[in-house]
Design goal:
The protein is an alpha+beta fold and 227 residues long. The protein has 2 domains: 34 residues; 159 residues, Immunoglobulin-like (Sandwich), CATH 2.60.40. A hairpin with a 4-residue loop joins strand 11 and strand 12.
């Protein structure tokens, strides 16, 4: 092979390597593109709310979502808020206690301001950025396991308000801890109540699952074009 041909071949190898490296750097994407194989549109620096290719198949609305309460009390152990491609996700994780490994019953709905939940003081009502409020009632549920009255165990040791990072519409998530100071007539009346304040009224849905029992409120993001 002549010196000129060897130089040309070496140049082609360099081009191929550079192209492969560029493809590797650009192939990350979010979880929806990684699992489905479809390519999501490239995101501009200021646009973090473009919905993935499967977001339109999520059934959501502004109407009340609920399931019937179970017989056994579930005990709240954790609460977390996290952003995803399609929605803001707020998840409440439970210990099923003496009951089956099933998520507890829930009632999630919008309430109109001025907001006052059974006379219990809350920060959400006076939070100016919260233009709409979702009430999350989970029942029967508690943050204290009192099956042994002589040794009650506090099961939820988290904050009254969840930390929010990169959420699209969620501006405050607050646990009404003082509600549990009111003694219910029967254990079946025990309930854990959270308030989700949003910057506007958005479609939502609820996803309940087991292992561990949990209830997730999914507040949909708006679909935006990338043009």
């Amino acid at each position: 092979m002549s010196r000129r041909l060897r130089r040309r071949a070496a140049s082609l190898v360099v081009v191929v390597v550079l192209v492969a490296a560029a493809a590797a750097c650009g192939g990350g994407g979010d979880s929806s593109s990684a699992s489905g194989g479809d390519k999501t549109p490239a995101r501009s620096p200021g646009d973090r709310t473009i919905r993935g290719p499967a977001c339109e198949f999520i059934v959501a609305g502004t109407e009340r979502r609920f399931t019937r309460p179970l017989e056994n009390t579930a005990f709240l152990e954790a609460a977390v808020a996290e952003p995803t491609t399609c929605y803001d996700k707020i998840t409440f994780v439970f210990n099923s206690g003496d009951g089956p490994d099933l998520p507890p019953g829930y009632n999630v709905e919008y309430r109109e301001p001025p907001f006052d939940y059974e006379g219990v003081p809350n920060s959400t009502a006076g939070f100016d950025d919260a233009k709409a409020v979702l009430v999350v009632e989970i029942q029967p549920a508690s943050t204290t396991d009192a099956r042994n009255p002589a040794r009650p165990i506090e099961t939820y040791k988290g904050n009254l308000r969840l930390g929010l990072v990169d959420m699209e519409h969620t501006v405050i998530v607050e646990w009404l801890s003082k509600l549990e100071d009111l003694t219910p007539e029967t254990p079946a009346d025990n309930k854990v109540v959270w308030l989700i304040g949003l910057d506007r009224k958005m479609p939502f849905t609820v996803d309940a699952a087991n292992q561990p029992p949990r209830v997730s409120v999914l507040v949909m993001k708006e679909q935006r074009n990338n043009s």
